[in-house]
Write a structure and sequence with these properties.
single chain; 27 strands; alpha/beta; Nucleotidyltransferase, domain 5; 35% helix; elongated
């Protein structure tokens, strides 16, 4: 069966009409540097030499068709990945009429806050464009009737659109079944072979936990052939890019840069970042290196650095965190006070461990909780109700229980605890059981937060979890 293009070509041939060759597109780098505005300079972006080279290669055409169907732009943090993805998308949209461009992210907020936002911002900042384009919520219509849309992952509602460009942002975080399905559903239409393209951006993810990006890394980088994109710049002279990590495998172009190549990526900036991040996090974000999906919760030296003598608590309010897993596991009580506006102090830790082959003596635990109510001014008890329903009922109204959800609130709390320990905003007196439970803990990334998990199934981490809940609640209270 002939395609519409072939039918038209045959018709014109019978009429003796020679079709006009398509008008060549302007150089993408020149166009982007003349039109794509950024707020940092209130002027069009000035691309770094390696960015120019990869853009030119990625949008290269042969006989009027794109050489590549997919561009993987993976670069270290703060290398303008999302901005460049937006510039490529807008360049193609501006020069192809009656088309659609989609910017896909894991949720609509992320889609609107990254690549799509940079496209919208460039349009609003360009004095020649701002009155030519229609912008409404998550939708932009250009003067040539091409539309640009920000969408969340939704394979049912967004599949099979035959778009000019589909851009995926932060591909390392595309983990859900919906994200995987959408990636599959947005494969390019055969009717637009060589006339449409997909672009994916982001840095490295977690090994075994990036089901979309990891196979693309395997195909594009590990199985790809290295390209030398060195070139002679008319203003800067010869640009030696022989060490640039850019690869080709069939119709896939993969940039996987692991080195600082932008002038704003200074030693002082990286020294600051290294003080905030673990080595593995630093390598993943600032070195574009794959990280283990589950890593040590915190380095020992972070916790040791928080060791300080405690001041007098007096009758200030505190929060008691309680964590109890199954009946044959530990039961942990951790009391935390608020220190100033942004610090917390560990005031008490007790871990009840069942005897070998036995169970926790819950009467002993309940008696200890009531004793703590006499010793401290406990404003609330943060707990996971799954294993403590009976206890909360027995202790009745004397104890002010607050259910702590183990879904999103736990993720937020665990990330808060991680940040506060890193920043030395947690004070403690060196309680050995708490330190051991922290040392037994790993962190598992979830929904851009993290969850404290056991390193091994036999490890005990109840005190660390109780600390997380207590710190989160005490920091939210006006004490």
């Amino acid at each position: 069966m002939l395609t519409p293009t072939e039918i038209r070509k045959n018709f014109l041939a019978r009429k003796g009409i020679k079709p006009k060759p398509p008008k060549p597109l302007p150089d993408p780098v020149d166009w982007i540097e003349a039109n794509f505005y950024i707020p940092e300079t209130n002027a069009p972006i000035k691309l770094v030499p390696y960015q120019k080279a990869v853009i030119k290669e990625g949008l290269r055409t042969e006989k009027g068709l794109f050489v590549y169907s997919f561009i993987l732009w993976s670069d270290i943090k703060k290398s303008a990945k999302s901005t460049i993805a937006g510039a490529i998308s807008l360049y193609l949209a501006w020069h192809h009429a009656w088309e659609t461009v989609r910017v896909v992210a894991n949720d609509l907020k992320q889609a609107d806050s990254r690549t799509f936002f940079y496209i919208e911002r460039a349009i609003r900042m360009n004095p020649a464009w701002k009155d030519l384009c229609k912008i409404s919520n998550y939708h932009i219509t250009l003067p040539n009737h091409t539309s640009i849309n920000a969408i969340p992952v939704d394979p049912k509602g967004e599949a099979g659109g035959g778009d000019l460009v589909t851009t995926f942002t932060e591909m390392w975080a595309m983990k859900s079944k919906a994200a995987q399905a959408l990636w599959s559903e947005t494969t390019l239409s055969p009717l637009k072979f060589g006339k449409s393209i997909r672009v994916g951006e982001g840095y490295a993810g977690y090994i075994g936990d990036s089901p979309v990006l990891e196979p693309l890394y395997e195909i594009g980088v590990k199985q790809g052939g290295h390209l030398d994109l060195s070139y002679d710049d008319p203003l800067l002279g010869w640009q030696d890019l022989s060490d640039l990590e850019v690869y080709r495998n069939g119709r896939t172009l993969a940039l996987w840069n692991t080195k600082p190549r932008c002038p704003w990526q200074t030693e002082d900036y990286y020294a600051q970042e290294h003080s905030y991040l673990t080595d593995s996090e630093f390598d993943r974000m600032h070195g574009n290196k794959w990280s283990a999906s589950q890593e040590t919760f915190i380095p020992d030296q972070w916790w040791d650095a928080c060791l300080q003598p405690m001041n007098d608590l007096g009758r200030r309010g505190v929060v008691l965190g309680v964590d109890a897993a199954s009946k044959d596991d530990c039961f942990a009580l951790v009391i935390v006070s608020k220190e100033g506006q942004d610090m917390a102090a560990v005031r008490y830790v007790k871990v009840f461990t069942p005897p070998k082959g036995g169970q926790i003596d819950f009467e002993e635990v309940e008696a200890e909780i009531l004793r703590l109510y006499d010793q401290f001014y406990i404003v609330e008890v943060a707990y996971d109700e799954r294993d403590l329903v009976s206890m909360s009922q027995r202790l009745g109204k004397r104890v002010k229980w607050r259910v702590f959800s183990q879904a999103t609130p736990r993720l937020v709390a665990d990330k808060r605890l991680y940040d506060m320990i890193r920043d030395r905003r947690i004070l403690h007196s060196g309680e050995p059981d708490l330190k051991q439970h922290i040392q037994n803990s790993d962190r598992k990334p979830e929904d851009e937060q993290l969850r404290i998990v056991k390193r091994h199934t036999s490890d005990k981490i109840d005190a660390c979890v109780a600390l997380s809940m207590a710190v989160d609640r005490v920091m939210k209270l006006n004490l």
